[in-house]
Amino acid sequence: GVQRILEAHANVKDLPLNDAKLQYIRAWQALPEYGIALFLVKHMGHKREELLGVAFNRIMRMEPNTGDHIKTWRYNTMKAWNVNWETRHMMIQFEEDNVVFSCLTADCKVVHEFIGGYIFLSMRTKDANQNLDDELFHKLTGGWV
């Protein structure tokens, strides 16, 4: 551990501060779990808890102790997602299967908002002058899909 820290420090000690920060950010962004929001969930019909990873283009079932990926679904295979507000369960319908779970570390509304927000962003163009479609954003993140 110490040796790796010393090696990493040797790589940046002579850099100007901003270059060192940029190198740190690039290394952080290169990590496999970068940009993944993790939620502890319990799937319907399962006794044990799992991690649900929500990224900009996919959702992952993950092993809580190791972070190993059990299953990955891409948003482009997703047909619908909604929350049962009475039972606080979230249902995501994919082409091949349905996933139903309760969220233990956040309100299921937060998971819904993450998914809706990422899908909204994926629909936007690179045009800087594009108007923000408030109605679509609220529809995708507000649970009315």
From TrEMBL:
A biological process term (GO) from this entry: cell-matrix adhesion
One Pfam family per UniProt: FERM_M
One Gene Ontology cellular component annotation held by this UniProt entry: cell-substrate junction
Listed SUPFAM superfamilies: PH domain-like
Entry superkingdom: Eukaryota
Domain FERM: 1-126
PROSITE patterns for the chain: FERM_3
GO MF assignments: integrin binding
Protein name as it appears in the record: Fermitin 2
Organism: Halocaridina rubra (Hawaiian red shrimp)
Taxon lineage: Eukaryota, Metazoa, Ecdysozoa, Arthropoda, Crustacea
